Amino acid sequence: MEFRRLGRSGLTISEIAFGNWLTHGSQVEEDAAHACVRAALDAGITTFDTADVYAGTKAESVLGRALAGQRREGLEIFTKVYWPTGPGRNDRGLSRKHIMESCTASLQRLQTDYVDLYQAHRYDSTVPLEETMTAFADLVRQGKVLYIGVSEWNAEEIAAGAELARELGIQLISNQPQYSMLWRVIEDEVVPTSEQHGLSQIVWSPLAQGILTGKYLPGQQPPPDSRGGHAEAGGSMKRFLRNEELLTRVQDLVPIAADLGLSMAQLAVAWVLQNPNVAAAIIGASRPEQVEDNVKAAGVTLEADVLARIDEVLGDVVERDPAKVQRGA
Q1: Under CATH, domain 3-207+275-300 is a member of which superfamily?
Q2: Sorting pLDDT into bands at 50, 70 and 90, what band is 49?
Q3: Strand residues in the chain grouped as ranges (E)
Q4: Which of 86, 113, 196, 206 could disulfide-link 272, Cβ–Cβ 3.0 to 4.6 Å?
Q5: pLDDT by residue (tens digit) across 74-95?
C-alpha cells in the first residue's frame, strides 16, 4: 500500500480507501462485509469511508462492528452528513441542528469517540454557509471531528467554503467527487480550485460502479450476481448500462490492461491515482477477492503513452461537463 497526504493537512491516508456505499447493510450479509473489511486491513488499507445515509444508517453500524478491536490510532475513519436520516424536517441538510445531532449518532454507530474526516455530503443552498461551517468548526474544537471535507461541491462552493473555514480557524482539506476514466467532470474547474485552496480529491466510483471491470457487455443483460443486476444497486448505473457505444469502448480497454499485466479493475483504479490532486480512490466490495484485486493498483504508474491510448479508445463517451458535478449519487 502507498500513502498520501490529504490536502495541505498533516493527515496521511492510504491511497486506496475502503468504502461501503451500497454494500454494508444492504447488498451483502454482515459476515461478508466483515470479511471484506478484514481483507482491506490485511492489504494495508487504513482509510475507511462511509456515510450516515448509507443503507439507512446501517452501513455505519456494520463498519463500526467490523473495525471493533482495531487500534483506533492506526485508522482513518470518514463519514458524511446531509441526506435524510429520519422523517423529521430537521433530519436532513446542513443546519447546525442536523449536523450536531447526526455527528453524535454517527459516532455511536461507528463505536468511536471521533471521526478523522467529517464531510458535507452535498452543498445545502437552503442553509447559510456560515451556519454550516461554524457547526463544523465547533465539532473540531470539541474533538469529535479532526478534519472537514465536502462531497460533490462545485468549484465556486469549494472556494467559498475554504475561505470561510480559514476565517473560522479550521481547514477544509478534501472533496469527494465521482471520478473515473468515464466521468471526468471535476478536471476543468473543481481540481484547479481545490489545488488553489489546499484540498485533495477522495474519489468515489473509480470503476464507474463496476462498468470499468469489463463485465458488462453490449447487447447483454447484466450478470445476475453483479451490481448491475441488483435491483437497488443497479439503478444508479443505468446511464452507463444503456449506452452500448460506451460498453463497446470499455471492451476495447481490455488489451491495454492485458499488455500491462493488470486486471481491468486495477487499470481503472490506477488511472484515477495518476491525477496528483487525488489522495485516494475509494473501492467497494461484496467479496474479499475484489479487495485483493483492486489494491494491486497501489503504486502503479501509467506512462504517458498508455494514458493517451486510453483517451483514444474512449473518445467522446467520456463525460466532461462541469455542470454535472453534483448529479452523482
Answers
A1: NADP-dependent oxidoreductase domain (3.20.20.100)
A2: very high
A3: 3-5, 12-14, 16-19, 47-49, 76-81, 115-120, 145-150, 172-175, 200-203, 278-283
A4: 206
A5: 999 999 999 999 999 999 999 9
